[in-house]
Amino acid sequence: MEQAVQLKREVPKRSVRQIIKVLELEGFAEPGVLRPSTMQRHLYDAGLGKKQMKRYAEKRAASSRRFCRAHRMELLQGDIKYGPELRTTDGGLIKTYLSSLIDDHSRYIVQSEFYDNQRREIVKDTFHKAVLKAGKFDCAYLDNGVQYTSGHLGKACAKLGIRIVHAKPGACQSKG
């Protein structure tokens, strides 16, 4: 039975009859000794029954579908986050901001860099470096910050064929 469970885990689409045939061919059981109903019962007890596997596959497909796009560079998510405060040589503090673009499919950080301000120029710089590093992407998902809603970014992306989608105001959960 341990071999049967292992065979089912290796290839979940294997039927009970196929598992019995493999066990007989490999010499783990004599031909005709194993019954499909007995094998089915043992696989079900191990959590590998047909309905159990189907339920698991459905839940897996639904959960992973919610959080990522199907292909690489199909959608990049961009945001600006607060970074650490740095002390200057004269003792003053400078706030830093992290501007990032992350691929939604692979979670690969395409471009990320610290800046000392939150102006729209840092977003332009982040997009420019991302395109140079990884090539053109299809769509960018951004929040409604002033840096992302400027006409300059929209025009530049339109010329490249990059669609910009903004999160709904107040929908924090959509931005993670």
Automatic annotation (TrEMBL):
GO terms for molecular function: nucleic acid binding. Pfam families: rve. Residues 62-176 form the Integrase catalytic domain. Coiled coil: none annotated. Gene3D superfamilies: Ribonuclease H-like superfamily/Ribonuclease H (3.30.420.10). One of its GO terms (biological process) is DNA integration. InterPro entries: Integrase_cat-core (IPR001584), RNaseH-like_sf (IPR012337), RNaseH_sf (IPR036397). This is Integrase catalytic domain-containing protein. It comes from Eubacterium plexicaudatum ASF492.
